[in-house]
Write a structure and sequence with these properties.
With 311 residues, the protein is an alpha/beta fold. The chain has 14 helices and ten strands. Helix 6 runs antiparallel to helix 7 and helix 7 runs antiparallel to helix 10.
């Protein structure tokens, strides 16, 4: 007999939000409805209504988008787990999330309960937005330039590589003026597209240090449990298996590069043959497909997908 199939659950980050997301989950699955109700109670305002009805400009704000995406993603997981009851959804050998998605992974691995997770996520969004106001900045996806060439561009312009997403797609981050210089230089070096991201600051750079300080104070007040499933850390692309390593990772990822490509390569190299993206959009599915064409990729982002995987 061959080795049993290994699966990983992966969770999207900021930018995946859209008005109307999660409404069908809320109305079709009691387990998903319970997640939305927990989020509303933990945050003290109707986040669910903001997800379902908008307005879009309010949903897009970092302080709202972050807890909203985590809520939808966890609702997808809970609905699928509840419907599966041991069938349909394979058990995860690893969990991982892209930047913000790492928080959903914590809840999936039982490190924090969901109410605490969504509270912590909103605080993260608030602190990151405030850090962005202190030193305005942004992020730009650079398409078609390799990592060494882009590292040189960043060194010359005072910017940083923020996300290594997949071959040919790397995100840089920095103060506004520096980012404009870096974009021009990257294009001159052969990049064929530069796509500004809808974020409120230079995420994953030292400009987020004020957010690190604030998050460290909040994290120190919370009780973390040892992960029930190894979490592949964003900054190391290695398994996190202790509560202390998770706490450290949550602080490290604010100011350092998200190693998504290497995270996927680690999991695939350890035998993961199926990646299941849980949450709004299909961004991670697209990235994983470009990282490893041999793995199977499933996406669960709405009620239809939950029913299909259990069909």
């Amino acid at each position: 007999m061959g080795e049993p199939m290994k699966a990983a659950y992966v969770f999207p980050g900021q930018g995946a939000q859209w008005v109307g997301m999660g409404r069908d989950l809320y109305h079709n699955f009691d387990s998903a409805k319970a997640v939305f109700e927990q989020a509303d109670e933990a945050l003290g305002f109707p986040l669910s209504r903001l997800c379902f009805e908008g307005p879009e400009d309010e949903l897009r704000q970092t302080i709202n988008a972050q807890p909203a995406i985590v809520t939808i993603s966890f609702a997808c997981l809970e609905a699928t787990r509840n419907m599966s009851a041991g069938n349909g959804l394979p058990l995860a050998s690893f969990v991982a999330g892209h930047s913000l998605g790492e928080y959903t992974a914590l809840a999936a691995a039982g490190v924090l309960d969901f109410a605490t997770t969504v509270y912590l996520t909103r605080e993260r969004g608030r602190l990151m937005h405030e850090a962005g106001q202190i030193t305005p900045g942004g992020m730009v996806a650079i398409i078609g330039l390799d990592e060494p060439a882009l590292a040189e561009v960043c060194e010359q312009t005072g910017t940083r590589i923020a996300n290594i997403n997949c071959p040919g797609q790397i995100v840089i981050s920095g103060a506004e003026d520096n980012l404009n210089q870096a974009t021009d230089l990257a294009k001159a070096r052969g990049a064929y597209r530069a796509i500004p991201l809808q974020v409120s600051g230079a995420f994953h750079t030292p400009l987020m240090q004020p957010a690190v300080d604030g998050m460290a104070e909040i994290i120190a007040t919370l009780s973390f449990t040892e992960p029930a499933i190894p979490i592949i850390g964003n900054t190391t692309a290695q398994p996190l298996t202790t509560a202390e390593s998770v706490k450290q990772e949550l602080l490290e990822q604010l100011c350092n590069c998200i190693q998504w490509q290497r995270s996927v390569e680690y999991m695939a190299g350890d035998g993961v043959s199926t990646f299941i993206e849980l949450g709004p959009g299909r961004v991670l599915a697209g990235l994983i497909k470009r990282i490893d064409k041999n793995v199977k990729i499933l996406n669960i982002g709405d009620a239809e997908a939950v029913n299909n995987i259990n069909g």
